[in-house]
Amino acid sequence: MPKTSSTRCCGSSPRNLSGVRDIDFVKGHGTENDFVVLPDLDGTLDLTASRVRALCDRNRGLGADGVLRVVKGAAVEDAPSDVDPDGWFMDYRNADGSIAEMCGNGLRLFAAYLVDAGLAERGEFVVGTRSGPRPVKTHEDGSVTLHMGPARVFGRSHATVSGEGFPGVAIDVGNPHLACLIDSDPADLDLTVPPGHDPVLFPHGVNVELFRRKGPDAIQMRVHERGVGETRSCGTGTVAAVAAMLHLANQPTGASYVDVLGGRVRVEITEDGSTLTGPAVLVARGRLDRRWWDSAS
Ligand SMILES: N[C@@H](CCC[C@H](N)C(=O)O)C(=O)O
């Protein structure tokens, strides 16, 4: 029996002292890639880029790598045509206010939120994203498996870090990645500055992964995300890294654990596409002060 939406955070919040309704939020993370979840069940929230930047700011806002607006597909103007208009849609925004097509860690958290809020039943369901409908499965232990679609190789290029060039594979996982297999320890890299990349191959920017093999069934990875900076994990990036590793080894399919700064996920590349399994953690529920929200417009 699913919980009703009123049991959790997505009913109308009480009015504040000024008589206006505050705005519900949930904070959570997937392998420490952290997000503010904003339930917008009737599609009325005006989520401007400026408000996203304020929310994600770790000093003047809540602090996060991104924002996940929970909304019906019908309310999203740029939703792909194969997304169910009556289904839940993950409207993902990067911390700098930009829109991205897909977010793997965010989608695990989004799925966990839907179940927790009684908006979906535990088990298998489909979530709409800007890279299309994504089947998800929530597990008893709190982990979530995502069907991520194909990881498509579209070229070779270089990332430049501290003046050094690292060859990599360009991979489309709904969003663009440059996954570079390196010999050295990723922990030694300085990712405080965005890695240089080829703007012709990546006209809309790119997420850069630097990874090395760590035993027979694991890789170690760091990532610099487009629109965010270095994060402690990137779900689509882990899929890109495993796809790149297999591509370089001329293996069409395979699987690997991926160790990121914030934990471990498992990626499988199959004939049909790819899956990503990892944790999703709901940390807190609260309310944004409406006056703060209005001032951040
Ligand atoms: N952290 C995400 C990816 C978020 C989008 C990315 N920064 C982009 O701009 O493409 C993940 O877990 O996949």
Automatic annotation (TrEMBL):
Stored Gene3D superfamilies: Diaminopimelate Epimerase, Chain A, domain 1
Domain of life: Bacteria
InterPro entries according to UniProt: DAP_epimerase_AS, DAP_epimerase_DapF
Catalytic activity, as annotated: (2S,6S)-2,6-diaminopimelate = meso-2,6-diaminopimelate
Keyword Nucleotide-binding attached: no
UniProt pathway annotation: Amino-acid biosynthesis; L-lysine biosynthesis via DAP pathway; DL-2,6-diaminopimelate from LL-2,6-diaminopimelate: step 1/1
EC numbers for this chain: 5.1.1.7
Annotated positions binding substrate: N33, N94, G104, N105, N175, N207, E225, R226, G235, T236
An example Gene Ontology CC term for this record: cytosol
Annotated positions for site Could be important to modulate the pK values of the two catalytic cysteine residues: H177, E225
UniProt record, GO biological process: lysine biosynthetic process via diaminopimelate
Active site: C103, C234
Pfam families named in the record: DAP_epimerase
Localization of this protein: Cytoplasm
Recorded GO MF terms: diaminopimelate epimerase activity
Keywords attached to this entry: Amino-acid biosynthesis, Cytoplasm, Isomerase, Lysine biosynthesis
Entries under HAMAP family matching the protein: DAP_epimerase
Similarity-based family: Belongs to the diaminopimelate epimerase family.
Function, in words: Catalyzes the stereoinversion of LL-2,6-diaminopimelate (L,L-DAP) to meso-diaminopimelate (meso-DAP), a precursor of L-lysine and an essential component of the bacterial peptidoglycan.
Subunit (UniProt): Homodimer.
NCBIfam families linked to this entry: DapF
Full protein name: Diaminopimelate epimerase
Name of the encoding gene: dapF
